[in-house]
Amino acid sequence: MAGLLMAGLTRAQQPERKEVNLGIIQNGDTVVFKNIKEVIVFPEREFKNKRDYRRYSRYVQKVKKVYPLAVEARELLVEYQPRYEALEDRGDQRKLMKKLEKELLDKHKNELKKWSISDGRILLKLINRETERTPYSLIQDFRGGFSAVFWQGIAKLFKNDLKAGYNPDDEDKMLEEIVTLIELGYL
């Protein structure tokens, strides 16, 4: 006969921590249900030589440097998109974007000057990952088609592509792995 058991408040070495667990009693055995953290398993990365290991380590450092800006881009999109869309006058929309652009440049200009082209390439991929939109479409929506084409041309000069998508299952698999490890606090 199955019955429902609710384990009382448990205390173990931390008296202020309280936890309630649900479980059932079945044939005299108690089965407790408890939520546990998700465990993500990646295949162990093997390197052919020290050079490949150094390359991977540098890539990890670049992602760690760039990732906070991609997260900031996502947060700004969530904050500003409703405000932008609420403005009916195109002039007011442009003023809002100019103001945001100036704030961002003032905040990050000195840092961005020190970045390499590959840092920018990683940032474009991560912005796409975080916002689920390509940088090209973001520029097109907020600054207009002419600006999007202009910045795409500039990106192409530096062998980047604002229209390139983010594919975590194929070409961006290593980047996705590194970002996941950063989000979980392992890196």
UniProtKB/TrEMBL annotation:
UniProt source species: Maribellus luteus
Domain of life, source organism: Bacteria
Pfam families assigned to the protein according to its UniProt record, in alphabetical order: DUF4294
Entry protein name: DUF4294 domain-containing protein
